[in-house]
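Notebook entry, structure prediction.
Reason for the run: the old model in the group folder had no record of what sequence produced it. Starting over properly, with the input documented here first.
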Amino acid sequence: MKKILLSILTINLVLLIGVVPAVASVAQIENKVNSAVYSYIIGKYPHLKNDEIKISFKYADKSFAALADESAELSFKVLELYPNFKPAGETLMPLQVYKNDKEYKRIFVKTIVEVYRTVVVATRQLKKYDIIQAADLAYSKLDIMTNSIEYFTEKEGLIGKQTKTIIRKGKPFFSWMLREVPLFSRGAEVKIKVIRGNVTIFAKGRAYGDGYLGKKVKVKRLDSKKEFIATVIGENEVEVN
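New structure, fully documented this time:
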């Protein structure tokens, strides 16, 4: 019985010794491909070098295992099949395989690329037209490769802005979600300052749109019903030159 157990242990040990190098070789292939993808990303997008880059592979075990026996001799390079190729999210990555620095074969590996950057997110659900306060803002990580819309990395530029839509808790702020707070709203009564040479006339009017400092807005005089394109110069005040 002892001899049988010893034989089984010996066989298992031999099998294990054979498996460990194979597993190590597959891991070596994966590491080399990972390095090739990383080098490509940094080469194409050098501004990402300070961000957190995560690279993983999907359904690649067979491809890596097929190359494992030659792992020491192989190197890899990402092929750019077209100029605007962007390795964002889940991509079928084309790779040139080199054996002893000579072109050997091409493979395609399903690759997931995530690039995380610290951005500003909402600490609570914000309603439409809410004015953003410092307490509404926090920092979190965002995969910027799959978010091409302008986001914010600093809180200061957001405080005092007004939301144009609902922003859910934990979600990042994008530029299209926000606007400056208007000095008056559409339909508000405004003071119209009309300048004609050395003469300045003031009249009451009605705004046809929201008023933002320094921006144009259409207004109508209440006494004459005349309409003007005026410049917003203050709270409930516009100027016509």
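Summary: The domain at 189-240 is CATH 2.30.30.760 (SH3 type barrels.).
The old model has been moved to the deprecated folder.
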